[in-house]
Design brief:
Layout lengths: L12 H28 L6 H17 L6 H24 L9 H30 L4 H22 L7 H21 L3 H25 L9
Helix pairs in contact: 1-3, 1-6, 2-3, 2-4, 2-5, 3-4, 5-7, 6-7
Length: 223
């Protein structure tokens, strides 16, 4: 790994600020989620999203290296350590996200999901993501597409606003939004940029859904 903490040769100050602040907001999201796990015995990140989040963080923390600097490498590792706690509690409480699913079968699904996430992400990162984006941009947005879409599905299925954080809804929107701004500053690939826009739209849909449920205007629980 390079001993440079912040790469100012290949990235501008604006790029570092948008990407760095966006990543920091996601650290806050994880901390809020961990606090709520302790309070409600429920994980508000969808199970499959946790599988892909965890696989991405393992791979970019310990297998692949960003060229943005050591500060970001350790930032990824901060995500990894926080996500270890979340992953443990998904095995403990994840079955509560599902309808009439025994805990044992839910945990089998998690094992399959984790194995699938590593099997999909590792070759994609090695062949496409690491050589092109150098910081996990492609797979990061792919994982966020899973995340943002499944959040809305989960909150509708549970229809219990107490289990979901208003702060998480907004911070994940602004966190990924700033990373999307970084992508527009740094890259020109329409596939990468379009993923950022789609994630933003999905996050807005989640925020709207959150307030619809909170205000009693949406009541379609499936359990």
């Amino acid at each position: 790994m390079s001993d440079v903490w912040i790469n100012l040769k290949d990235y501008t100050i604006a790029e570092h600020l948008t990407f760095g602040i966006g990543c920091f907001l996601w650290v806050i999201v994880y901390i809020i989620i961990i606090r709520n796990i302790k309070k409600f015995k429920f994980v508000e990140i969808p199970m499959i999203a946790v599988c892909f989040n965890f696989a991405w963080e393992v791979l970019w923390s310990w297998v692949f290296e960003t060229n943005m600097g050591m500060l970001y490498q350790w930032g990824y590792r901060a995500w990894f350590f926080l996500d270890c706690y979340i992953l443990y509690h998904v095995f403990k409480y994840g079955y509560k996200q599902l309808v009439s699913m025994p805990k044992r079968w839910a945990n089998i699904m998690m094992v399959v999901g984790l194995a699938s996430a590593f099997a999909i992400l590792y070759p994609y990162i090695k062949i496409y993501d690491a050589p092109i984006s150098h910081m996990g941009g492609y797979t990061g947005f792919i994982v966020n597409l899973f995340n943002s879409a499944l959040f809305t599905s989960l909150i509708i299925r549970k229809n219990n606003i107490e289990l979901f954080s208003e702060w998480v809804a907004w911070l994940k929107f602004f966190g990924t939004g700033l990373v999307t701004v970084f992508a527009f500053l740094k890259f020109t690939d329409p596939f990468l940029l379009s993923m950022g826009v789609v994630v933003a739209v999905l996050d807005i849909i989640y925020i709207i859904t959150y307030y619809q449920i909170k205000n009693g205007k949406l009541n379609v629980a499936l359990e």
